[in-house]
Design goal:
Distance between the termini: 38 Å
Helix content: 55-70%
Number of strands: 14
Strand content: 5-15%
Shape: globular
Structural class: alpha/beta
Number of domains: 3
CATH topology of the largest domain: Rossmann fold
Oligomer: single chain
Radius of gyration: 29 Å
Largest sheet: 5 strands, parallel
CATH superfamily of the largest domain: HUPs
Strand order of the largest sheet: 7-6-5-11-12
CATH architecture of the largest domain: 3-Layer(aba) Sandwich
Length: about 600
């Protein structure tokens, strides 16, 4: 039992003994004591004053005395109005270090073997363009939330739904047919996803020219967009695809194959992966079956033009299209099918969709329609809605080719990491291969940390130059702190940690602060998992790195002459390194042993 549990038990017992107030330890809420006061944990006593029939100061004093009597590890207490500040003895903090040093999975909880999994869907790319900066936030957030849930004791299945069919795919296919001249990734030396994205942009350029010409001839804009020959041909290609046209399917298979190879390379470089990949081309038909079920149940209705809709006006929304008048499906159709398939595959405890906040409405509708179709598990669907990534010069637009490509961004990050490392002299003693690996680790650490430290619900401005800095709230600062600690531990040698573990009874304020931050890690993981917020773990890692660096600057470690104190401080270093590594691992960030 850690000290917080012990304090909660003692406080609950004191309230019962002193005032006949019956609360459980779980009812007691402790806060960390504010920096300007002496103490470690603070109890606000105002909720108990009325029943105790005494002043807040008197109640706090009496509870403090009772807790100190019940718990010898409470060194002392002080009262500030209705706030009871409790101070924990140094012996507890020292023993906590020795109890947990060497615990490689510190802060992580094990999942019950029979627990139903949490299914986390992320990435969900379209096969008409390469992954870009927006996809990077999606992938990093999905991967990190999955790791966070696992660290908090859940079984997790990471899944990807590839949007490999639809009008947007046909646009790239049609443009390649028209203007590709047989170009392939091998013939032009371009990654397959980049090549297909090139023709998506090409379609848009020619389509806009057609629309402009039709408008100049007197047609209104909406009609021109709808009746432009390229758009009509793309829609006809989609219809032929759904009818199984052999030529269209062969072209689709070839171009999607190029894209998948490109995606896989980017995923490997980014350090993310999946337990299972679903394809819209395999799930939209199941969605169509559900649409027919909805029609049979009277939940859905067909309009005169043959299109199928769900009336959600009674739920405060509007009518939602599920099948177009030509019988082709929409995103909602395949999402219905995929949700059902995923439930059947995993019997999931939760179905988490990591999707941008522009799809908030879509997921409200998805849950509503699943519920109307009679699926009791509809309430397990959770949309992890995150904000958009913007650049200093504005938003990205795929059709216009103004996106920040994921591969190009990672290249640029590695070049910047090399420049910054050389300027700071961080790699002078490393070989060429070690340096290249270090640049990669620093670049990805900077990128991931800069993105994940922002609360998922907020929009963010990404500035690569700010992300790679060895000072401040950045990935490289925390990575460098870890490397520094590992250097200390290596220099100390294994034998130094074998000193007696009960001789340290007094800690300096800086080392005490480090232990307190370490002590908070398991709670920080649970809280972050409950909020689906890797940003909380990033904030924790930064706080721990700051606390350690303050301790390091103020306190001798290897120069300490007292053997027991030196051994304790080395153990504290080792424990801190493990915790930093575990926190950064949740974020998908590697930490280098040397810098």
């Amino acid at each position: 039992m850690n000290i917080i549990d012990s304090l909660n038990d003692a406080i609950a017992q004191a309230l019962n003994n002193l005032y006949d107030i019956h609360v459980t330890a779980a009812d007691v809420v402790l806060q960390e004591t504010r920096k300007e006061f002496v103490g470690d944990y603070t109890l606000v006593v105002f909720p108990y004053v009325k029943q105790a029939r005494k002043s807040p100061e008197a109640v706090a004093s009496e509870i403090g005395a009772a807790v100190k009597n019940l718990l010898p590890l409470v060194k002392g207490y002080n009262v500030v109005k209705g706030f009871l500040n409790l101070e924990v003895a140094d012996e507890y903090w020292a023993s906590y270090v020795w109890d947990h040093v060497g615990e490689e999975s510190y802060g992580y909880a094990a999942a019950p073997e029979d627990a139903a999994p949490v299914v986390v869907e992320y990435s969900s790319p379209n096969t008409n363009k390469p992954l870009h900066l927006g996809h990077i936030r999606n992938n990093l957030l999905g991967w990190s939330v999955s790791r966070l849930l696992e660290a908090a004791g859940s079984r997790v299945k990471k899944v990807n739904l590839v949007n490999d069919r639809g009008i947007h795919i046909c646009k790239s296919m049609l443009a390649w047919q028209r203007w590709g001249n047989g170009e392939t990734p091998s013939s032009c030396g371009m990654k397959g996803d980049h090549l297909v994205g090139k023709y998506y942009v090409e379609f848009d350029k020619h389509y806009k020219a057609e629309v402009k010409e039709m408008m100049e001839q007197g047609m209104d804009e909406e009609q021109a967009k709808r009746e432009a020959p390229l758009m009509v041909e793309a829609q006809n290609m989609l219809k032929r695809w759904e009818e199984g046209d052999e030529d269209v399917r062969q072209l689709w298979t070839m171009m999607n194959g190029w894209v998948y190879e490109g995606f896989d390379e980017t995923y490997r470089r980014l350090g993310v992966g999946f337990d299972k990949v679903y394809y819209e081309s395999n799930t939209y038909l199941l969605g169509k079956e559900l649409v027919q079920k909805g029609l049979d149940m009277g939940v859905l209705f067909r309009k005169d033009d043959g299109s199928v809709w769900c009336d959600l006006t009674g739920d405060g929304l509007d009518e939602k299209l599920l099948l177009r008048r030509d019988g082709t499906s929409v995103y909602m159709t395949q999402d219905l099918g995929t949700a059902l398939l995923r439930h059947k595959d995993f019997g999931a405890e939760r179905l988490i969709y990591v999707v941008g906040n522009e799809q908030d409405y879509h997921f409200k509708v998805l849950k509503l329609i699943l519920s109307k179709l009679g699926f009791e598990w509809a309430d397990k669907v959770y949309h992890l809605s995150y904000g958009m990534v913007e650049l200093p010069n504005g938003k990205m637009k795929s059709r216009e080719g103004t996106v920040v490509d994921a591969d190009d961004l990672m290249d640029e990050m590695e070049r910047t990491a090399e420049t910054m490392s050389r300027e700071h002299g961080k790699n002078d003693d490393l070989g060429d291969e070690e340096r290249r690996e270090l640049y990669h680790i620093l670049a990805l650490g900077a990128l991931k940390y800069f993105i994940l430290k922002v609360d998922p619900t907020k929009n963010m401005l990404f500035n690569p130059a700010e992300s790679i800095d060895f000072n401040g709230n950045t990935g490289p600062f925390i990575q460098y702190t870890y490397a520094r600690i590992r250097s200390i531990v290596r220099k100390a040698g294994e034998e130094k940690g074998a000193a007696a573990q009960d001789g340290v009874t007094s800690l300096g304020s800086k080392e005490r602060e480090v232990v307190k931050v370490l002590h908070a890690f398991p709670t920080a993981v649970r809280s972050a998992a409950a909020a689906y917020s890797p940003a909380m773990v990033a904030g924790y890692a930064y706080d721990l790195a700051k606390a350690f660096n303050s301790f390091y600057q103020d306190t001798p470690i290897l120069r300490e002459e007292d053997d027991q104190l030196r051994a304790f401080r080395v153990a504290l270093c080792s424990f801190t390194a493990t915790t930093i590594k575990n926190a950064m691992d949740i974020l998908g960030i590697e930490v280098p042993e040397r810098m």
